[in-house]
Each structure stands twice: as structure tokens, then as C-alpha cells.
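Colleagues,

Please find the record for the four-part complex below.
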Amino acid sequence: MTIRVLIADDQELVRTGFQMILDAQQDIDVVGTVANGADAVEAARRLRPDVCLLDIRMPKLDGIEVTRILAGPGVENPMRVVIVTTFDLDEYVYGALRSGATGFLLKDSGPTLLIEAVRAAAAGDALVSPSVTVRLLQHLAQPAVGAVRSLNDPLTERELDVVRLVARGRTNQEVAAELFVSLSTVKTHLGSIQVKLGARNRVEIAAWAWESGVVS
Amino acid sequence: MTIRVLIADDQELVRTGFQMILDAQQDIDVVGTVANGADAVEAARRLRPDVCLLDIRMPKLDGIEVTRILAGPGVENPMRVVIVTTFDLDEYVYGALRSGATGFLLKDSGPTLLIEAVRAAAAGDALVSPSVTVRLLQHLAQPAVGAVRSLNDPLTERELDVVRLVARGRTNQEVAAELFVSLSTVKTHLGSIQVKLGARNRVEIAAWAWESGVVS
DNA sequence: ATCGCCATCAGCCGATCGGCCGATCTCTCG
DNA sequence: CGAGAGATCGGCCGATCGGCTGATGGCGAT
């Protein structure tokens, strides 16, 4: 049972390179190559490959749009999509994975990982480039405790109480009421928090709280 | 520059198997093998390998404990740790990654991924078994697209631009500047956003954005 | 071509926030 | 005991935000 693969990339060199790498595997068969997003959608629907390799940067439709169309939420018979890109910007990663991609590869990953990513996708699994994974894990892995301690001037327990409420959208009045203190106290705490975090306003405090996992 | 690896596993067959696979690579050198967690800690400190391959199930100290000791938060000179296990239970994964592991492999992953995981770890990256990754991504993937559409009155593209900037702590002035519109326009958008989301202030907008994955 | 949606802009005003000064009380640590 | 840190409170004031009302132009659908 060979894995049928569609390659979509606007650079000819990349297309042929990938094709040579993949066709050299006995269990993988490249059934089509296209150079833009619109063709990718059409070819994917016609050829029904097991795995689609999509570049992010493509004319007409970018890889993320194509992913949404072929594998996004609400699509019946979603296809397996592996995103391949030169850029590892975070928004690409999240956008791709949220759109339904089951793989995310940087072009500098080497042929081995390309092959493994295709096999994983065909099996319904997902392989993500190690250099990207390490950042994904940081978001997921070491919440709260680490973030609070990593400040050169850590927040006190009471300040954390304030942070958590602010991050959920409470006004100073509401925070005061919920913590049974006066408005002044809340403002004092907020002042210290801003200094410690280097935040310019309460929304930056909230953003820090969400990013660091202090709230979730 | 060869990658120096320490293998810790209580099963002799696994140890020798891994050793054969890794030693066959020119760039990888197995510098030690141990059969329990306590020895792993000792050997890691003495040999200072570039990468430690740790089984989860080991006598004395399990792999996660060892990871915490060698690479956990607050450890200076943390080591690179790849967890290897037969079981892919979620608690193991989260426990391992939270403890500082930079890789998570199932024993059925095949030699290729083992080698790539070691190389990735040595480079400071992280490789996670595809079958595990796919579940990690499901935690990450769902929201966003869904969240925006699940509103009975969805946000427009422009409103999303505003949301994203607000969620990162920008003031209205700054949002206006970054989007090349006037302050009035930003305020108008914010008004509509608040109505649509049922938010009472900008921090609740930000909280929604973080929760739903519109920003991350 | 008229209607509705979207994006754009303006001004006004009260509420909230952010920055600044100050203060008292408690607790811990040396 | 004295020093320092943390939590508590008050007042003042300018900046920002939130709510309102209203207006213009583009663009697609009926």
C-alpha cells in the first residue's frame, strides 16, 4: 500500500527536489505537483492523495487557506496536510495547525524528516519540525511557576491575585470587591505589578498572565 | 563534533538495541548505559553527555524524576533529555515535557526518529513522536477559527485586526497608528467588538482573544 | 438603483485608569 | 529592637477609555 502524495510549491526546484526524495522511497508515490494554491485544491480533489505537501507562500491561495479548505474544521473527508515552509514565524505555525494541518516542516529539516512527516501524516499522526516543536512546548510545558520566578523581581501572592482578576477583565472596583480590599489597595498593587512586569497598562498585564499560564 | 549520548533503560535488550542504532551513526557516540534512575543521575553528572535518553519506567527513580533533576525548572546547566517509553499516556507526556524534556519518543517509532530525536535534542530542539504530537495539537488546534464563527454575529476581518492588537496591550492610539486609521475608527471598531463579544471593556476583549486562540 | 454592510471619521462627556505623593500596620529576619 | 518587605489605605490629576450620536464613501446583493 503506497502513500500517494501531492506536492504544491511555487518554486520548481523545491517541487522536483521533494519529488526526487519521496519517489526514492518504495512506500511513497508522488501523484502530482502544482505551483499555486488554486491548483492545489483542484488537484487534491481530483487525485485524492493520502497526503498533501503544501508550501505556505504560494500564488492565488496561500498554504494556510488551502489547508482550511481541504482539512479545516467542518470539512467532511478532511485530507492529511503537511505544511512546508522556509519561515518559522509563530503565526504561520499556529495558523497552519489550527487550520487542520497534521504536520509542519521547515525546509531546512533534511530529507529524513520530510519522509517521516509524510509517513506520519498518512498514518493520521503529525510530525512537527523540532525547532518549531521546542517553541510549541514552551507555551504548553512550563506555565506559571517558571514565569513568575523568571522575573528578576517576582510577584507576591497578593499581586498574583490581582493579576488573575485583571486578566479576566475585571475593573479595579470589581477586583477590590472580590478581594475585600479598597480601591486604593488594588491600584497600589497594580502599580507594583506594572513596574515588575514592565507593563504599560492593564492589558499588557493580562497578556503576560495569559502567555505565562498564570491564568488559563 | 560528535553527539555524546547516555542511555538509561532497565531492559537490557532496549539498551543494547538503542546503542547499536546510535553508534552506527558517525555523529553520535554512546558514552554510557545505565539501568536505573539513580545511576542515570550519577552518570549524567559525571559524563556530561549532550543528550540523555531516559526510559520512563525505571527502578529507584523514574524517568520523569530524573528529568526534573537534570533539566527541570531552576536547574543550572540543564541537560538535554529525550524521554523514551512504551506507553503514550497523556500524563506521561505532560509530566515529561513540564519537567524539562526536549523530546518524547515511543519505542515503536522506528530507528530513524530515534536518531533524529537525538540530533534535535543536541541542537536544542525537540522532537515528539508523531502519534503523540497529533494529540498535543488537538489541544491546541480546535479554538480560533471555530471561536470567531461560533459568534451569532461574527467579527469582521478589520475588527479582528483591532482585537489582536488590543490583546497585545496596545492603546487605541497605537492601534490607530499601526493600522493607519484614525483614533475614531479604532474606537468605532472597538464598540462593535464589545457588542458582538458581550465584553464590557478591552481587557475582556483581550481575554476572549487569548482564550479562543485568536492571538497566541 | 436602492438597501445594507463595512470601513472610515468627528465631537462630546462621564467613568476608569495610571502615576504620583503620602501614610499605617504586621511580620520576619538579623 | 530595628530594618525591610508586604499589605493596607487616602487624595490628586492628567490620560485614556467607553458610550453616545451622527456622517461619509465603497461595494455587493436584490
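Residues 183-197 of chain B form the longest helix (15 residues).

Comments are welcome before we finalize the supplementary table.
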